[in-house]
């Protein structure tokens, strides 16, 4: 009896194992085909920078994604889909000594940074350097504000939605932004299917009465336009995303002075990998609710990263005030010149090819640079003219990866192109773009 039972169990286990292997293989085939389809047909699902990063890794085997490096580049894929700010690497290499930090094993062990601060995990040195950089650049009012630190402004965005949406309402609060909007907003807003808030699309089409949250991104991602609130109704609350309100991208016309403003080192100094953002918040209750969200989400924000970000911000401010190594250029001058050069090259390539167009910007006086200039955004909002309806697909055939306009609530004729990649990739992109009419 015992032997029969053992034998029956053995065959049962074998059957279950075989079923599991088969299901696994079927799932793999189905998922693989799904990915392939997504790559070919202007993917609609991903939008967050990181989501795109993981997609690129999975595509890597078939497309051989390597960084273009000069020699024999013609077959290389130029990946300008996500907004990775690696352009700044060359500046920071020269600032080795000024930006290196060493954290001994005994330091920064506690969860707490500043227990008396409503944001108890905010490192005082980061708070000090963030205020200082705003004073140096003149892009935001910092007086009478609470600062909340986040794991990137991505986490702060979610904390802000949690803090601003009224709790205990019968339905979720609408969240809107003028199209084209940052492709991650709809995804981040609806990811957890919150009962507090939900994505409601293009702010220009929003005609409902009642409370709503409007996201104002200025300069805007993807098109680089300066933005102000569009809906303008009494029951609205605003989140101002100032990831790109820095003088290498746009004229600083005044110190921004709004209820809730988001900033990040990702695009200001290019340290996206440190994952540090900060919010300047007028209302203490809102700042405390945002802090609560982050407490429950990640129990604070990495101290190591905060200390590194503080050091980088200090080096940036010092470079502007000529307080560091005299051989080191002002960071914003360096990055401004890089952006001017890149936009000039891109516009020349677009003119030469005759297949594309770019937005025209209005010049403005910059209180930081003390000159008039046109926005030179971190992304190019490129339009395929004429017969080309699927701009992303068209560029992909030329081994240039971009993000389809559809993710931003716009048409397939548009793509967003990262302008902050390393020199070899950017140069190869403009070279290919300028000769495209010849290839076609
Ligand atoms: C408008 C905008 N806001 C926020 C973010 C996210 O920034 P972080 O890296 O600080 O999460 C980005 C990144 O591309 C962005 O473009």
Provide a concise account of the structure shown:
Keywords: Aminotransferase, Pyridoxal phosphate, Transferase. Helices cover 41% and strands 15% of the residues. It has helices at residues 2-40, 49-63, 89-93, 96-99, 124-137, 152-164, 184-190, 265-268, 284-298, 303-320, 331-353, 391-397, 423-434, 436-439; strands spanning 78-79, 146-151, 173-177, 197-202, 212-217, 236-241, 260-264, 276-281, 356-357, 364-366, 371-373, 379-384, 400-401, 403-404, 414-418.
Mind explaining what this structure looks like?
- This protein is α/β, with parallel strands linked by helices and 440 residues long.
- The chain has helices at residues 2-40, 49-63, 89-93, 96-99, 124-137, 152-164, 184-190, 265-268, 284-298, 303-320, 331-353, 391-397, 423-434, 436-439; strands at residues 78-79, 146-151, 173-177, 197-202, 212-217, 236-241, 260-264, 276-281, 356-357, 364-366, 371-373, 379-384, 400-401, 403-404, 414-418.
- A hairpin with a 4-residue loop joins strand 10 (364-366) and strand 11 (371-373).
- The protein has two domains: 78-92 and 330-434, Aspartate Aminotransferase, domain 1, CATH 3.90.1150; 109-320, Type I PLP-dependent aspartate aminotransferase-like (Major domain) (Aspartate Aminotransferase, domain 2, 3-Layer(aba) Sandwich).
- Helices cover 41% and strands 15% of the residues.
- Helix 5 packs parallel to helix 10 (303-320), helix 6 crosses helix 9 and helix 11 packs parallel to helix 13.
- Pyridoxal-5'-phosphate binds at residues 49, 83, 152-154, 182, 217, 221, 241, 243, 264, 266, 272, 277.
- Pyridoxal-5'-phosphate binds next to helix 6.
- It comes from Kalanchoe fedtschenkoi (Lavender scallops).
- One of its GO terms (biological process) is amino acid metabolic process.
- Keywords: Aminotransferase, Pyridoxal phosphate, Transferase.
């Amino acid at each position: 009896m015992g032997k029969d039972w053992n034998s029956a169990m053995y065959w049962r286990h074998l059957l279950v194992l075989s079923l599991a292997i088969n299901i696994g293989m079927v799932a793999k085939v189905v998922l693989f085909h799904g990915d392939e389809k997504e790559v070919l047909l202007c993917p609609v699902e991903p939008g967050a920078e990181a989501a795109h990063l993981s997609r690129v890794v999975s595509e890597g085997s078939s497309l051989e994604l390597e960084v273009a490096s000069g020699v024999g580049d013609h077959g290389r894929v130029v990946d300008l889909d996500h907004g990775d700010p690696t352009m700044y690497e060359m500046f920071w290499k020269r600032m080795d000594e000024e930006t290196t930090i060493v954290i001994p094993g005994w330091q920064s062990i506690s969860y707490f940074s500043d227990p008396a601060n409503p944001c108890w995990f905010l490192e005082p040195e980061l708070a000090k350097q963030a205020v200082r950089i705003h004073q140096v650049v003149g892009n935001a009012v910092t007086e009478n504000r609470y600062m909340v630190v986040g794991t990137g402004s991505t986490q702060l965005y979610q904390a802000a939605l949690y803090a601003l949406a009224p709790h205990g309402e019968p339905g979720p609060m609408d969240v809107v932004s003028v199209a084209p909007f940052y492709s991650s907003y709809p995804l981040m807003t609806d990811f957890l299917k919150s009962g507090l808030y939900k994505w409601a699309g293009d702010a220009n089409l929003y005609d409902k009465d009642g409370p709503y949250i409007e996201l104002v991104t200025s300069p805007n991602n993807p098109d680089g336009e300066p933005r102000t609130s569009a809906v303008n109704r009494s029951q609205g609350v605003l989140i101002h995303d100032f990831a790109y309100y820095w003088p290498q991208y746009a004229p600083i016309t005044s110190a921004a002075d709004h209820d809730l403003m988001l900033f990040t080192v990702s695009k200001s100094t290019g340290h996206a990998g440190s994952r540090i953002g900060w919010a300047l918040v007028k209302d203490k209750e809102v700042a405390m609710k945002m802090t609560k969200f982050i407490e429950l989400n990640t129990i604070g924000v990495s101290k190591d990263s905060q200390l590194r970000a503080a050091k980088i911000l200090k080096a940036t401010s010092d470079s502007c005030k000529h307080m560091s190594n005299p051989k080191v250029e002002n960071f914003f001058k360096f990055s401004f010149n890089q952006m001017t050069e890149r936009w000039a090259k891109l516009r020349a390539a677009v003119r030469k090819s005759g297949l594309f167009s770019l937005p025209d910007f209005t010049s403005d006086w910059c209180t930081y640079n003390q000159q008039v200039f046109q926005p030179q955004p971190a992304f190019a909002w490129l339009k395929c003219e004429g017969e080309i309806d699927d701009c992303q697909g068209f560029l992909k055939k030329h081994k240039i990866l971009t993000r389809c306009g559809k993710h931003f609530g716009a048409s397939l004729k548009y793509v967003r192109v990262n302008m902050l990649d390393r020199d070899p990739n950017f140069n190869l992109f403009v070279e290919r773009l300028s000769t495209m009419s010849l290839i076609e």
